[in-house]
Amino acid sequence: MGIFSFLKGLRKEEEIEKEPEDLVLTDIDARINSFSKNVLDNLDQELVDIRKKIDEEKERIGKNLLLMEEKEPENKNLPERARGIIDGNKKSYAVKIKGFIESINIPEDIKDVPNFCDGFNESLDNFGKKTIKNFGVLQQFFGDNTKTISISINNINGSVKKAKELIESSD
Q1: Rounded distance, CA 149 to CA 152, Å?
Q2: Chain-centre distance of CA 55, in angstroms?
Q3: 127 CB contacts (<8 Å, ≥6 apart)?
Q4: Contact 163, 106 (CB under 8 A)
Q5: Measured distance CA(101)–CA(169) in Å, rounded
Q6: Nearest of 84, 155, 89, 95 to residue 127 by alpha carbon
Q7: Contact between residue 35 and residue 170 where contact means Cβ atoms under 8 Å apart
Q8: Contact 137/89 with Cβ under 8 angstroms?
Q9: Contact in structure between 119 and 163 (CB atoms under 8 Å)
Q10: How many other C-beta atoms lie within 10 A of the C-beta of residue 78?
Q11: Which of 41, 63, 100, 163 has the fewest CB atoms within 10 Å, measured from its CB?
């Protein structure tokens, strides 16, 4: 037990009693403001990263739309009517997607982000309802492109959800 009592003695010597600081009300206010500023700066930086990810996904969607618009169905024996239906669905789908991704812009003001996120969910539901027929037709002929577009839209949805969670957790 001699070794342990020696170690206990070392521990007691290392402990230095600190006097509690006298805090003035203005110091408390300054500390709260400093802490709030740090939290807001961190939150703002995370939102900047999310905006960047969303912009990358929007760009990926645009590239895949261009590829799909330029691509012809592999089956060259399709009747002219079928080709017309495919072309009409491509154009309609492209217009709807472009309109949808243009509306995706997370606000700069942190206070507006939760409302944007709630509105985004509604917009996403409406977008899905409006494009389900186009998507079904195009999936048969341009599966790779529609799949990549769907994945990008899902990634955007995940980023918007993450933005909402960040804001809610900072409250």
Answers
A1: 5
A2: 10
A3: 96, 100
A4: yes
A5: 27
A6: 95
A7: no
A8: yes
A9: no
A10: 15
A11: 41
Tell me which DSSP letter residue 119 carries: H
- How many Å apart are CA 163 and CA 167, to the nearest integer? 6
Put residue 71 in one of left, alpha, beta given phi > 0 → left and psi -120 to 50 → alpha: beta
Tell me which residue of 34, 36, 33 sits closest to 44, measured CA to CA.
36
Here the tokens at position 148 are 């990549």
Provide the residue-wise pLDDT of the chain in tens; the chain has 171 residues.
Answer: 455 555 555 555 445 555 556 655 666 666 666 655 665 667 788 999 999 999 999 999 999 999 999 998 888 888 999 999 999 999 999 999 999 999 999 998 888 999 999 999 999 999 999 999 999 999 999 999 999 999 999 999 999 999 999 888 876
